Amino acid sequence: MPTDTSALDLILRADPALVGIVRLSLLVSLSAVVLAALIGIPLGALIALTRFPGRNGAIVLLNALMGLPPVVVGLLVYLMLSRSGPLGSWGILFTPQAMIIAQSILVMPIVAALARQTIEDLWEEYRDELAALNVGPVRRIFTLIYDARFSLLTALLAGFGRAAAEVGAVIIVGGNIDGFTRTMTTAIALETSKGDLPLAIGLGMVLISLVIVVNALAWGARRASERYAG
Amino acid sequence: MRAPSSDLPLMLEDVSILAREVTILDKITLKIAAGEPTILVGPNGSGKTTLLRAAMGLIAPTRGRVTWGGREEVPPARRSIVFQRPAMLMRSATGNLTYALAAARVPRAERKARADELLDLVGLAGRGDRPARRMSGGEQQRLALARALAKDPDILLLDEPTASLDPAAIKALEDIIRNVAARGIKVVMSTHNLGEARRLAGEIVLLHRGRIVETGDAQSFFTQPKTEDARRFVAGELLV
Questions:
Q1: So what's the ipTM on this one?
Q2: What is the C-alpha separation between B68 and B52, in angstroms, rounded?
């Protein structure tokens, strides 16, 4: 099929427009995952290891937030960052920074909820041993995060998959501006509506490849966990 | 070189432990001093594990008090415990030991050599690189014992360490326990295996329904039990 051939051609000759879109997508999604990890892992550990009033409610809320609709997140971030919004003075609406914030809000609950579950399970198992070994509270937290590292990596990869594949939030807060805030998903939506299928299909192929790579990494992390950690 | 302050003697003074109105330990008074191994015997549910956990400081008594070397509120720096089902950290065997050595504040430069010594002591020399959680049950028990010895304890508490092991693994573990006791570490171990109690004990404590039924040196306990419960227990009858 001519469209398929053209799409493959775009990938093989590293079409500058396609490469630019892929690069921005990776930059935004990876940054969002890093930001989500910096907040989500400590938050998950905190909820796992502390007891406070309303903890069960917090866990239910965190789990529910894993299914946040991207368009709603996009709308909320838009309202926050728009000129009349509380963070309007930052002037970052329709920039990659706004897209990173929106995606990190989508990813953070996934990372925090999975980290909470993983760390809590491990804590149940380790609690008496660490107490008997006379390990202090700070070292306990680092031990749990370190020993849960492969499961946490899987959580981060799941978060990255969610970020890279979503379109609703980034199109609202990024504006899908050519060469500036256009990501793979927003470009696919636009090019398909314009009838420019080769670029849409080419980006779709890259996106699917990325999903496969992410899953392969998750599988590799699991294997490494079994091999090195038991 | 031992620190001047010791966790011995370990004293339980009129200790009772209740869980949701159920009495697990009932007015236990027991002095654990340096010397040959003390073996806690008794049927399942008699309170052996709870007594060991209280002796470790992992459970606070509901009534009474536990003291280590005459002091209360002593962090577990000079006492160790091996649980019936020890949790292995998600690291190699050596990684488990260096972690325990770090927790015991052994200088980093000395940890690898000390870990190798401990592996050798428990018959796991050359297996330090293996993931601890993929070792056999017997190997994990021996590794847990080595990990418990990392802090060079005064007291080593063992909660049915040979339960669910095969005879060869039991013999290996008992040999290590004798070796540890010969080094001057006070061993306090629970078991409901009478044969094992005979082989290892210097002193016996018989527990039943959370109370101490009889205590004394092992030879007298097995040859001339003083109480009817002890006589029945030694005769192999069921205490219910």
A1: 0.89
A2: 13
